[in-house]
């Protein structure tokens, strides 16, 4: 069976290793297909924001005034998403059309020359990461500023100051460099050390990095942006603890986060995917201020439902499966002679320390 599969893979590689294939046109076409499909789906959702009355199931729970405010806020966010998605699409198209990634790699060499650093693969990969972040930062900064200081401000949610917003971006960039450059060097080392078997070892490294992120994010990274304080003794703590116990959730830390320093939005989440490891429940101070104990308990029941149904573990498995697929595909494309790219220039991008894949809100 595997010999049959291998034969088909080799035949596909031989077919793909043809300079006449218009790869750039194919990739840009795929980018357009994905963008248009996602825009169509978003447009379908956007049309629902024109409704002026809530669904019957919500009429007894949501006032007409609150529903209208929610619809107005949803429309503004959707319009902004159309613009930001279009900008991202244009950047992707420009990157493919004008070979921007390759140019950034060459510019990284110039940076190393200016710094009088030897052109090793690790050094070039690190410089490429830093330079790429610097080029992406202005667009992200401008879009984020508009979202916070125009849309969120218009609807009364924004609490950030410009100084706080700028400082957050500086911290994020520094963290990306401080953590990203060593991780890049580590990935290159593992790939070179493992040779033809690098796919398995790289996925194992990805797994270790993701789990490492679950450990350092709540203890080292998040405190750089927000203050976490233990939830005080009282009815709320007792009910949350009882809820966790009833679901056999291994709660070890229960915190309140000062989300009100940036936004009046309320939220709560739990953190931790390692079996037997530390599990956090974090409640926004705005949720405590705006909700009753029973309402907070209901919100947390939803969050812990993710744990009951093993959503973190399933999401981790899906993420690692995707990592394996993309890494394996990358390995197969390395054998195609008409592709000549540096090791990490063509490597699938990973985001190991992002809390988005590890936190359920």
Q: The CATH topology of the domain at 226-309, please?
A: Zincin-like
CATH superfamily heading of the domain at 226-309: Metalloproteases ("zincins"), catalytic domain
Report the CATH architecture of the domain at 226-309.
Answer: 2-Layer Sandwich
Percentage of residues in strands: 5-15%
* N- to C-terminal distance: 44 Å
- Tell me the strand order in the biggest sheet: 1-2-4-3-5
How would you describe this structure to a colleague?
The protein has 361 residues and is mainly α. The chain contains eleven helices and five strands. A hairpin with an 8-residue loop joins strand 3 and strand 4. Helix 2 (23-48) runs antiparallel to helix 3 (64-97). The longest helix has 34 residues, at 64-97. The chain is globular, with a radius of gyration of 24 Å. Zn(2+) binds at residues 302, 306. Proteolytically removes the C-terminal three residues of farnesylated proteins.
């Amino acid at each position: 069976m595997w010999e049959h599969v291998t034969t088909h893979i080799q035949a596909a590689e031989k077919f793909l290793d043809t300079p006449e294939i218009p790869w750039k046109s194919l990739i840009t076409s795929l980018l357009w297909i994905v963008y248009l499909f996602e825009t169509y789906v978003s447009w379908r959702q956007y049309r629902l924001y024109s409704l002026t009355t809530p669904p019957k199931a919500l009429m007894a729970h949501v006032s007409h005034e609150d529903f209208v405010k929610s619809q107005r806020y949803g429309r503004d966010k959707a319009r902004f998403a159309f613009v930001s998605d279009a900008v991202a699409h244009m950047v992707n198209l420009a990157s493919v059309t004008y070979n921007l990634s390759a140019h950034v790699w060459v510019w990284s060499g110039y940076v190393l020359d200016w710094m009088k650093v030897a052109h090793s693969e690790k050094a070039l990969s690190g410089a490429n990461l830093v330079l790429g972040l610097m080029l992406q930062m202005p667009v992200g900064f401008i879009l984020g500023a508009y979202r916070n200081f125009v849309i969120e401000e218009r609807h009364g949610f924004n609490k950030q100051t410009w100084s706080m917003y700028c400082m957050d971006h500086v911290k994020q960039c520094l963290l990306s460099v401080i953590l990203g450059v060593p991780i890049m060097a580590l990935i290159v080392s593992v790939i070179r050390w493992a040779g033809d078997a690098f796919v398995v070892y790289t996925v194992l490294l990805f797994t270790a990095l993701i789990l490492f992120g679950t450990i350092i994010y709540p203890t080292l990274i998040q405190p750089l942006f927000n203050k976490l304080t233990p939830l005080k003794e009282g009815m709320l703590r007792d009910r949350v603890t009882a809820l966790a116990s009833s679901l056999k959730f291994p709660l070890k830390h229960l915190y309140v986060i000062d989300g009100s320093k940036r936004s009046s939005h309320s939220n709560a989440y739990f953190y931790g995917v390692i079996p037997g490891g530390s599990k956090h429940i974090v409640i926004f101070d705005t949720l405590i201020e705006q909700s009753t104990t029973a309402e907070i308990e209901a919100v947390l029941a939803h969050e812990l439902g993710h744990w009951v149904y093993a959503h973190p573990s399933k999401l981790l498995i899906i993420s690692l499966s995707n990592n394996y697929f993309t890494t394996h595909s990358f390995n197969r494309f390395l054998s195609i002679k008409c592709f000549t790219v540096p090791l990490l220039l063509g490597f699938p991008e990973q985001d190991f320390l992002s809390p988005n894949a590890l936190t359920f809100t």
